[in-house]
Amino acid sequence: MALALVLNSGSSSIKFQLVNPENSAIDEPYVSGLVEQIGEPNGRIVLKVEGEKYTLETPITDHSEGLNLAFDLMDQHNCGPSQLEITAVGHRVVHGGILFSAPELITDEIVEMIRDLIPLAPLHNPANVDGIDVARKILPDVPHVAVFDTGFFHSLPPAAALYAINKDVAAEHGIRRYGFHGTSHEFVSKRVVEILEKPTEDINTITFHLGNGASMAAVQGGRAVDTSMGMTPLAGLVMGTRSGDLDPGIVFHLSRTAGMSIDEIDNLLNKKSGVKGLSGVNDFRELREMIDNNDQDAWSAYNIYIHQLRRYLGSYMVALGRVDTIVFTAGVGENAQFVREDALAGLEMYGIEIDPERNALPNDGPRLISTDASKVKVFVIPTNEELAIARYAVKFA
Ligand code: AMP
After folding, report:
1. Sequential DSSP letters for 359-370
2. Looking at 149, 226, 324, 342, which residue is catalytic?
3. Known catalytic residue: 72?
C-alpha cells in the first residue's frame, strides 16, 4: 500500500498522519499521532495505529528529535518508514503569501521562499519550515510537497482581497486579505460538486468551516471570491478563542487607555476572546449545556456567534448572486445541529430551508440537510485536510 505522510508542524507540536490517498473522505487514517510539548520538560508522543493508542513520555528538545522519536515509535509498532512504503510527504504550510497559489514540490529555493514569508505568519511559518527541514533529512528520497492554507484564496478578486489603507504602506508590508483554511474550503466545495454530479463552473457555494478556528468562503464555479479571514486568521467570524472582526480603533483604545502592550492585546484577541472570552468555555458541547441551564453569558456568546455567521452569509449571498449549495464542515459545523439550524433560520424566502430530521442525523459522512423543496441545497460534509494534502503530495511521486 502506497502511503503519504502528512505533517502539520506547530511551534511546540507536530501532528502526523499516514494516509492512503485512495481512501474515501471518511476512512480513518491508518496511523496518526502527535508530538507535543517540544522544548518543554514534559514532552509526549501519542501514536494511534488502527484504533490502538501508544504513548511515549520523554523530554523532546526540538522538532528534529520529536520527529525522529515518532518514527522510532512507529517502527516499534511495525508502521514506520522502515516497514511501510511512504511515497510522498505533504506539509501543511500556513502562509503562502501572494507567492503560492498551488501546492509546490519542495526544493531548497521553495524553503527559502517560505522562510521569507515568516513576517506574515511569525507563529506558524517558522515551525512549518522546521518540520520541512527535519522531514527532508529523515526521508530524503521521496518528494516533499508544501500545501498552503492560503492557496485556495489566491484567486480572490482585488475588491475582496485589498484593504482600504494607504496603498504604498500596504504594498510595502504585504497587507491584504490572504484567507486561511483554504484546503478545507476547497475540499468540501469540490466534494459537493461531485455529490451533485454537476460541472464545477455551474455551482456557487457558501462554505462554513466552523471549528475552534472558523471561517467562511464564497466559491463561484470552483473559484474562491471572498472569505472571512484576512491578513491573519484573527479576522471574520467569532471563534473559540479569537474575537473575529473588530473595529481596529479598539486596539488603539486598549493601548492608550488600558495601557496594554501589543503582545497583551494580541494574546487577548487571539486566546482570551471569542466564545471563550464571552462565556468562559470554547467547546460547543459545554456551551450548549450552559445554554440549556439558561446561563446568560453562554446565551450572549451564542447569539453574537450566530449573528456574525448570518452577517457573512448575507454578504456572500449578495456577492454570489445565485447560491446553489451551502456546506457546513469542521468540529462545530459537522456536529452542532443547533448552530446550523440557527445560522439558516427564517431564510425560506431566499430558498433556504433546513429539514429538522435530516439536520439531526449523526455525523457519519456527507449528507443533505435541506428539504426537497429548498432551492439551495444545504449539506454537511466532513472535512479532511490531511486526505486533501496527501492527494496533492502523491501527485508529485
Ligand atoms: P475543530 O477545530 O474542527 O477540531 O473543531 C473543534 C470544536 O468542535 C470543539 O472545540 C467543539 O467546539 C466542537 N465540537 C466537536 N464535537 C462536537 C459535538 N459533538 N457537538 C458540538 N460541538 C462539537
Report:
1. HTS-SSS-EE-B
2. 149
3. no
